[in-house]
């Protein structure tokens, strides 16, 4: 008898087909899995590349912005001409004197100072030959080429004379402010008086107030009182309020200045964090003003450039100590600010910007 034709079940023809199908299915699943993992890796790789490109793009944009801002600052500083005159007292020193900052050389120069004594800068004469100076008690005219030479204009008991400015006429050489009584509060404008000095050295009381400035036609005296900014017609001796202080509480750390061609008046209110620009319109017997711009800045001593295009300020981080004093300049064509010079080497309370020639 022959042996039966027997094969294990697993080797039966139908089962072989199933195995082949299972193998193909497994291969497909493996390929799908590999493809999925590959796609996920590709997406992750693309994301990393995209992030790297974004970071590079952001970094490039920041670099370009820095370069652009540096180029803009350099262009602005190259447009600043002449010298800025200041009163400064260096930190850890009893010096208190006159300095000038040269925009061409970017150097600060000490012109005149004395240990333990106040030497307060004023304005440069129209011809550039003299500078007005106060030592706190008397007014002097000193030669700009040699500040050891000059003329004493006053010799009296009026105390705390400060801010001597040119009168720009043969009848009046200088206007200045002086405190009425040293016992009164220094921070109230009406506790100060404005005087003129003529060629003979005679001092004439003009009005109560502080921060005198004269228009360039010698017609109006601009100054600060408790309730705002005034213009005094020197022919009529009639003051006109041109800028209202709503609270009636102006204080002496508010400062004013007039642009070289009388078109603008700047008034700084440091506590409020504002510098106001007013367009001036005046003539015989009238003076009007219109606010055209409010600059956000805790700043002192607004000073116009010789061509009237720029406004220099001493800006601070406002607080009890007014930290980080610095010179900043605004281009009055677009009101963009540029930091010019760090003044932290000087006592903030001593800093005064007095002229730009």
Write the layout of secondary structure elements.
Blueprint: H1 13-79, E1 83-88, E2 95-102, E3 107-115, E4 120-124, E5 130-134, E6 139-143, E7 146-152, E8 161-166, E9 174-179, E10 192-197, E11 203-208, E12 210-214, E13 220-225, E14 228-233, E15 238-244, E16 255-258, E17 264-269, E18 274-283, E19 286-296, E20 299-304, E21 310-317, E22 323-331, E23 336-342, E24 352-356
Antiparallel strand pairs: 1-2, 1-24, 2-3, 4-5, 5-6, 6-7, 8-9, 9-10, 10-11, 12-13, 13-14, 14-15, 16-17, 17-18, 18-19, 20-21, 21-22, 22-23
Describe the 3D structure.
The radius of gyration is 37 Å and the shape is elongated. The chain contains 1 helix and 24 strands. It has 357 residues and is of the alpha+beta class. The termini are far apart. A 4-stranded antiparallel beta sheet has the order 3-2-1-24, with no helix packed on it. A 4-stranded antiparallel beta sheet has the order 4-5-6-7, with no helix packed on it.
